[in-house]
Amino acid sequence: MITLTLLHPLQSVAVQSWTFNDEPSVKIGRATNNEVVLYSAVVSRHHVEIRKSGVDQWEVINLGSNGTYIDGERVEQTKALDGMIFRLAKSGPKILIKIESDLNQDQSDSANQQARSKRQPKSAKDTLIS
Question: What domains lie within the chain, and their CATH numbers?
Fold first, then answer.
């Protein structure tokens, strides 16, 4: 699972997020046929692709004429890392990448289910307290 979060241009706070579970790639750009559509003059119609490259592994591929930047350096293709922030064009939108492994998700779901079953016996009923 990969989550892409658009960050505020001046502060590192989330503006909008998109989560993708089974997609082999996620395209970002101005065109409406992208999975993530960003309306900005510096963003190309098809600007960047985040492509699955293995189990829980992704790569960032620049498609745009204004470039894709990580830590101020222009990249054409690079491995996507959990917590990485990339920028579309030198002064364009910033996007945070969060990668959650399928194994971690399964373990988390299992742990949450176990915690729920331990907290409340099967015969218990929800009670509203006002």
Answer: 2-117 (2.60.200.20)
